[in-house]
Amino acid sequence: MDYVHFNPVKHGLVRRVIDWPHSTFHKLVKAGIYPPDWAGGVADALGYDD
Predict the structure, then answer these.
(1) How far is 39 from 42, CA to CA, in rounded Å?
(2) Is 13 helix (H, G, I), strand (E, B) or coil?
(3) Cβ neighbours of residue 37 under 8 Å, at least 6 residues apart?
(4) Which of the residues 1, 3, 11, 40 has an alpha carbon 20 to 30 A from that of 33?
(5) Is this model's pTM higher than 0.85 or not?
């Protein structure tokens, strides 16, 4: 699930996982499985500041 949710960020379509509107991530945030800021954004994932 982590891999699938992070793909839009990895491929430059959005800066944060939560910004991709077509993801099941939103449903899982509502269920309390993921926090809304899970995985941060591109800069966080690559290890540099925005």
Answers:
(1) 9
(2) coil
(3) 16, 18
(4) 11
(5) no
- Assess contact for 8 and 14: CB atoms under 8 A: yes
Taking phi first (over 0 means left), then psi (-120 to 50 degrees means alpha), and beta for anything else, what does residue 2 get?
alpha
Question: Could you give the maximum distance between any two Cα atoms of the chain, in Å?
Answer: 30
Answer left, alpha or beta for residue 39, where phi above 0 means left and psi between -120 and 50 means alpha: left
Q: Half-sphere exposure of residue 3, counting CA atoms within 13 Å on the CB side?
A: 0
Task: Give the amino acid at 14.
Answer: V
Q: Which residues of 24-40 are buried (b: 16+ CB within 10 A; e: fewer)?
A: ebeeebeeeebeeebbe
